[in-house]
Amino acid sequence: MVVLKPEPRYVRTLLARYASARIALAEKAEPAWQRELADVTYTLCVVTGTRSITDAIAAADDILAAARQPEEHPQSSGAADTVLAA
Known about the structure:
By secondary structure, the protein is mainly alpha-helical.
């Protein structure tokens, strides 16, 4: 089974959309913002493989944190890393 990792940039965009919709709804309950919040909530859950927005946000945070970490590369044999002094 292949597990696809979502692109961190896409996850960041979804989190921004979620925050914008929550803020807009807090200011004024409009149907367009309610639909946007429902849509982005669903999308965040699907992308992160979770069933609740709380879990989706936590998973999205983990995805973004992992993207900030440098990838670990296997140790080389050392032959190419040796610097010869003249």
